């Protein structure tokens, strides 16, 4: 099969080449991939650490070519969206049936390919916050893939959404159109206390956000766009009255149960136009180097999608 292979000598450290077809286990289906979306984490870390010839990729959408041998999962010919630790950037992908969402017939594979990491991370982060109806919810890194899904889902849940972006003048209108009630540069600029934070940035924003939590508030930290160590002030986690019952939590997406259900629901919402996938770059997979360069240069505010042609 053809695949995008890690090659440090190639533009973007990727080249189109030949790789062995995957061999699905009994609990896996074989998917014919139509489109993939890129994530900054896999691009920044994966391309610099993977062995040459590796097929990377977390997110892919396509059609089931071979059903799981154990009889579970979707049937041959079913449109699906898939999640995994690697192997998405290829014509064929073997993926666990627990990490597959069923996609409505006729849906754009490129649009639904944005769902797995970004959409599921946003949904699971909001799940950690509990019911958001009527609550003040902050999303840091709101112009990124996770952030844009989190803004939309929080608004649909009835939250008062405060989006954080480094350039509110440029990105405020688009974030407002996605559902944000307020757009600020960082949590330190927020007036009053907040009930929950979906943090995709880390660094100073994580520290300032935690300081603005109300009693019973939670920060869900799921990203480290700001490199370097994080230092909380002395007493930040003390059980004093001002800091009573605040929480800082994290999670590992692939360790979550029930992701297939999440992927199915989110893909259906994207297909129905209820969620905007916010595709900032789209092109054929033989131009992957351009997408990688744009992601590394932080020029994309949204998702990058490659169509396999």
UniProtKB/TrEMBL annotation:
InterPro entries: ADH-like_N (IPR013154), ER (IPR020843), GroES-like_sf (IPR011032), NAD(P)-bd_dom_sf (IPR036291), Zn-ADH-like_protein (IPR051397). GO terms for molecular function: oxidoreductase activity. Residues 9-306 form the Enoyl reductase (ER) domain. Transmembrane segments: none annotated. It comes from the Bacteria. PANTHER family: QUINONE OXIDOREDUCTASE-LIKE PROTEIN 2, SHORT-CHAIN DEHYDROGENASE/REDUCTASE. This is Zinc-binding dehydrogenase. It comes from Umezawaea endophytica.
